[in-house]
Queue: 2 jobs
Job 1
Amino acid sequence: MIRPTTLPTVPAEAHAGRRNMALLIQLRWLAVGGQLLTIAVVLDLMGIRLPLAPLIAAVAVLIAINFASLELLRRGRAVTNAELTAALLFDVAALGWQLYHSGGLANPFASLFLLQVVIGAILLAPASSWAIVAAAIVAIGVLAIDPTPLVLPPPYAADPMALYLKGSLVCFLLIAVLLVAFVTRISRNLRDRDAALAASRQRAAEEDHIVRMGLLASGAAHELGTPLSTLSVLIGDWKGAQGPAGAPELQDDLAEMDAAVRRCKTIVSGILMSAGEARGIAPEMTTMRGFLNSIIRDYAGRFAGTFEFNDRFGADVAIVSDPALRQVIGNVIDNAAEVSPEWIGLAASRDGDTAVIEVADRGPGFGPTMLEGFGQPYRSTKGRPGGGLGLFLLVNVLRKLGGWASAENRDTGGAVVRIMLPLAAVSADGGRV
C-alpha cells in the first residue's frame, strides 16, 4: 500500500534532538528508580546508615529535571545540543553529589560516570562530549577530597573489599544492561532516520521525474496542436465535399475521425492546462458526486461493456474539481477497460473525512511484483516501453493532495485500485485548493 509521505518541516537534527532528550528522560527515570531501590536495600537489608537528606535531595533534583525536560518536549520545538549537554551535566553533578555523601571513590557506583561519558559521546557534538568528560574528571577529583565516609556495620567492616567487589559487580551489570538497551534504541533511531532519508530521496527523484515528464508532455502538446488543427480543418472540408469524399459510406468514418481528433485536442488542451502545476490552473467548482458523474459520462461513452457505478458516498460535498486528479482517475479507468472490456465497476464511499474511490475490473489481476512496486514508474503488466506511468502519476498526484492509493486482487477475479482522498484537500470552503 502507498501511504502519504510527509516531509519534515524542521531539520532532521531537530527530530534527533527530541528523540535523544526522550532517551535521556527514560534513562533518568531508571536512575531515579535504581537509586531509591539502592537506598532502601542499603538501609533496610544491609543496615548501613546513609545521609538520607542529601541523597533524597539529589533524587528530587533528577525528578524535577525530568519534568522540565518533558515540558520542553511538549512545546513541540527542537531540542538543541546545548540543552542536551546541560541535562547531562546535571546528571553528572547529581551523581557526584550522591557519591560525595556516600563514600566518594570508595563507593563502587563511581563507575557510573563512565555510562554518562559514553552517552555524551553518542548523543552530543564532539565539543560537548569533551565537556562531559571534563565534568566527570572534575567530579572524580572532588570526590577524592574529603568525601563523607560510610560507616560500615560489623558484618562488613571486617572485610570492606568484599563489599566493594560485590558492589562493583552490581555496578558492572547495571552499566552493561543500560548500555545495551541504550545503544539498541539509538541503532533503531538511526535505522528509522536512514529509512526516512531514503524515502525523501525517492520522493525527490520521483518529483524530478514528474517535472521532466511534464516538460516533455507540454512540449509535445504544443507540437501536436498545429497538426491536429490541420486535421480538423481537412476533415471538415471532406465532410462538406462533393464526389467520392462525400459518399454516404464515408460520412460515418469521417464523423468518427472528427470525434477522435476533437478528443485528441481535448487531451492536448488538458496537458497544457496542467503543465505548470500538479493541480492545474483552471479548476472548477462542483460537488464530489458531480465530479464522479462527469468522469463516468466521459468514459462510459467510450466503453463498450458494462460500466457499473455504486454510489455509497452519502451526503454530497462541494469541492474544487482538480484536472490532474480527474486525469489520473481516468488513467485507472482506462487501464481497467483495457484488461476487462466486458465490465468495469466504480464505487464511491466515505470514511470519515476521506473519500474512497474504487475502480474494479475482471481482468487477470496484478502479479506479486506489481503489487509490491505499486505506483513505481515503468512497472506495468502491458509489456510495452513507457508503461506503468498511469499508476505512478496517480500515486504522486494523490500524495500532493495528502491522499494515497492501494491495489489488491479481488477474490472473485480481477483487481481493484482504491483511491483515498482527504476531502479537505479538494474542499470548496477553506480546504487546500
Note: The longest strand covers residues 343-351.
Job 2
Amino acid sequence: MKLRTIALALLLALSPAAAHRAVAQEASHPQPSQVRVGPHGEHLVGAQAGPVDIVTPHITDSHALELPFVGEVELPRWTPVRIGGVAIDLSPTKHVVMLLVAAVLCVLVLVPAARAHVRHTQQAGAPKGFANGIEAMVLYLRNEVILPNVGPHGNAYVPFALSLFFFILFANLLGLIPYGSTATGNISVTAMLAIITFVVVEISGMRTQGLGYLRTIFYIPPKEVPLPLKPVLFVIMSIVELIGKFTKPFALAIRLFANMTAGHVVLLALISLIFTFGSYFVAPVPIAMAVASSLLEIFVGFLQAYIFTLLSCVFIGLIREGGH
C-alpha cells in the first residue's frame, strides 16, 4: 500500500501536465462515482464535491479489500447479531482479513522452522539456515525477556509471550507491503490484545497468590501507620490499586495503536507535500523522506512487538511477585 502510494505520487509529480489534463478530462466527463448529491438534492460534480480524503482510508478499517490486478473487492456483509437492543455486526473487514493473514503467516513460518530445527539437530547436531535465525530470536526472547521478567517457574508463559510477539510482528509488517494494511493501527485490535493480556495477568496472580490476590485490589496499610489514618489510606489506595489494574492494559493498547497509526500519517503527510507545492522539483525530497520513513517503520514494527511482549511479561511478573 505504501509503495504504491509513493509510486503514484512520483508519477504525478514528474508529469504535472499529464495530471492536469487527466483532471480536466475527468471534470468534463464525470464518472458516475464522481457525481455526489448535495444537502439540498443538487448534483455536485468534480471540484464542487469537495476535497477528496486520501488519509483516512489508509488508517481506518473498511468492508473492502484491495487486491492486485483486481482492484477493490467488497467483503461479504452478514446480518447483524442482536443481543437485546444492541445490533453487533460480525461481518469481516479489511483488518479482520489482515489478522487472519498474520495468523496464517505465523503458522507457515514458525511450524516449518520448528520442524527443520528438529531435523537439523538430529542430523547435524545444530540447526542451520532460517531455522537457526528463528531459534536465535526465540532463545533471546525466552532467556532475556520472558523468564527474567515473569519470574520463577516462568516457562509456562513462554508460549503465550512468543505468540504475542510473532503475531503482533506479522500484523505490523503487513502494512508495509503493497495492498496490505496494518491491523494493529486499529484501536479495537490493540484493545483486544490488551484485554487478553489483562486476563492472563489476573489469572496468573490468582493462581500464584491464592487469597493473597485480594491484596492487589485492597490496600492493607502497614503497622507503622497510625490507626486513624488506616481507614483513609485503605479507601484511597484501594481505589488507586483498582484503577492501576486497568491503566496497564489501556497503556498497552494506546501505545501500539498510536505508534502504528503515526507511521501512516507521517508517510501520507510527506507525500502530500508534492501535491501541495505542485512542482516536480520538490518531489525528490518528500519521496526520499517517505522511503526513509518506510524503512524506519520496519524497525518500529519489530520494536513495538518487542515492547508489547516485554511489558506483558513485566505485568505478569509484578503480580506473581507476592506469591514467591
Note: The chain has one domain: 2-10+94-323.
